[in-house]
Design brief:
With 342 residues, the protein is an all-alpha fold. The protein folds into 2 domains: 14-32 and 213-342, no CATH class; 38-178, no CATH class. It is 60% helix and 2% strand. It has 18 helices and 3 strands. The protein has helices at residues 2-9, 39-47, 52-64, 67-83, 86-94, 99-114, 119-125, 127-135, 142-153, 158-171, 176-186, 194-207, 217-226, 238-253, 263-275, 279-289, 295-298, 305-316; strands at 31-32, 292-293, 333-334. A 3-stranded parallel beta sheet has the order 2-1-3. Helix 14 (238-253) packs antiparallel against helix 15. It is globular, with a radius of gyration of 20 Å.
Length: 342
Amino acid sequence: MSLLRALLGAVRPARPGPGPTARSVPDDDVLLDAPDERLAPALVAAALADPEPAAKLLATTRDAGEWEDRDRYVVRLATFAYSRGDWLTHWLTAAPGDPDALLVTAQLAVRRAWGSPARAERLRELGPLVRDVAEAAPHDPVPWRLALDHARGAHAGHALFESLWEQAVRRSPHHYGSHVAALKYLSAQWYGSHRAAFDFAEQAADDAAPDSLVRALPVRAAHDRLRVPPLRDPSVSEARIDRAADRALVLSGGFPVGDPWPAEVRNLLAYVLVERARWEEAREEFGRIGAHATSFPWGAGREDPLRAFLTARDRAGGEPARRDRPRGTGRGRTGRGGPGGH
């Protein structure tokens, strides 16, 4: 908390051994944002306007304190409700005070506001809803992560953002989603700088457990920096970006090949490795990813994310990039309810 406070107050400008090959999984078997075995049945039921499996899933994560899973599931369910919301309407009608239904509703409302041309105004209108959902959660960090995302888009000042951050980490000191929300706020795109983002990410990674996804926070900062070429900021050297990738390689190597849990982190790492032309390590990382492509980071530039993933994998594998191939023609499949981003 003290590091974030300092940054907000001053915001100014050993690697793993050989692994599987990049093309271990054929193109047609790659899935974009595939749900895990717990979420998939809830999405199938939601498609049939049945909210019960989703309600049971979120209640289970809340009761068990499974905050990382809970955060992912809330985002994915809200994303699904963005285009198919009958099941959520039925849930709210049957249980208007259900904290999980209200949390998904708030997440959905914030997502819709982010897509509006009048984003800041729309988000400010949602302030009471987001605040009520957060204040009703004595132990859950997920509504406070949502409050952090909401505050960033509503142009909240540093003092308010810091107070929300303290509430989030009081509930879960190393909650990945809350740390990502803080990193975005501290980024050069929003209210900080590349240096502030790296400082925060590296300190958070140092403090996290060896198997925590927070360990990969620096590689997320590296991704953000690499999307702003050319690399001229002396506060973020190429060596610092490579050290971020090295950290993430150690973390990734501790998970099984094809594990969906670290999929987004692995996709981020693969992106950075390709951008840094670290081809051998990129090939190995695509092998670890297996069939689990994710919309972020590959869709960050409004590209077709699955096509961008496969093109990058081809580059890493030393094959000709097939950028001109039509979409949907033997180039992987999209999973239900892929997450949105802002």
